[in-house]
Amino acid sequence: MRQKSKSAEVPLPPWEVRRKTEVPQRAPLTAERIVDAALAVVDTEGSAALTMRRIAGDLGVVASSLYAHVRNREELLLLVLERVMKEIGVPEVTGQWDADLKAHYTKMQRVLSAHGDIALYNFAAFPPTAIGVAITERLLSVLLNVGVPPKIAAWALHRLTLYTTADVYEGWRLANKDLDDWIDPVRDYFASLPADRFPSIVGNVDVMLDTDSDGRFELGLDMLISGLATFVTD
User: Fold this and answer.
1) CA distance 123 to 127
2) Average pLDDT, 10 consecutive residues per value, the chain (234 residues)
């Protein structure tokens, strides 16, 4: 009878034990993860850098897998905008209609400004999202409750939203230009204009080119709200 090999009964030394390689589990692909990735691109590089292929690469998936969750790039950008609008949120009501409006649109300006050029997609954002409807209902009720006529109230909210969106988008465009490349030449040009023909410009160059964008926004917002106050009856 053949004897068993003695070596087969010898336990393996620990340095010869073959450890199984652990393969990290990939998080399931969801619409929320896709929007997270898209928002990160918009925040850092702007919407022009956002493509379905780019998002797929950032998530480590194939581009075709995204279409089970979003129809196309345009829908994805609207989902990003909706995420940002949720960050702005439905405004609180304190009973001071003008302060409530100013607080909401100031927050809107700050939040939109923190997210690249997403403000571009708030132009003609129609049909509205659920969060957009909730915000409109709250602000419209604020104005109606102080006696502002319905037409004036509705149109005023549209104008305030358009003003805020345009301010943010222009700010993003300017932020992506090198100020030294254009502001100093413009300042020098204004200062060189004939003072007898352009006294108002020559005498106010520094004020005209003041880069306090938040101050400019607040001034415009105050002007709009002050004008709206003429329609308040209660």
Assistant:
1) 11
2) 62 68 74 97 97 96 96 96 97 96 98 97 87 96 97 97 97 82 89 97 95 94 98 91
pLDDT for res 183: 86
The secondary structure of the chain, three-state, reads CCCCCHHHHCCCCHHHCCCCCCCCCCCCCCHHHHHHHHHHHHHHHCHHHCCHHHHHHHHCCCHHHHHHCCCCHHHHHHHHHHHHHHHHCCCCCCCCHHHHHHHHHHHHHHHHHCCCCHHHHHCCCCCCCHHHHHHHHHHHHHHHCCCCCHHHHHHHHHHHHHHHHHHHHHHHHHHCCCHHHHHHHHHHHHHHCCCCCCHHHHCCHHHHCCCCHHHHHHHHHHHHHHHHHHHCCC
Q: Which of 127, 135, 134 is nearest to 160 (CA)?
A: 135
Distance CA 110, CA 104 (A): 10
C-beta neighbour count of 117 within 10 angstroms: 20
pLDDT of residue 19: 62
Q: Which pair of tokens denotes residue 187?
A: 């300042």
**pTM for this prediction:** 0.85
The b-or-e profile of 39-65 (16+ CB within 10 A means b, else e) is: bebbeeeebeebebebbbeebeeeeee
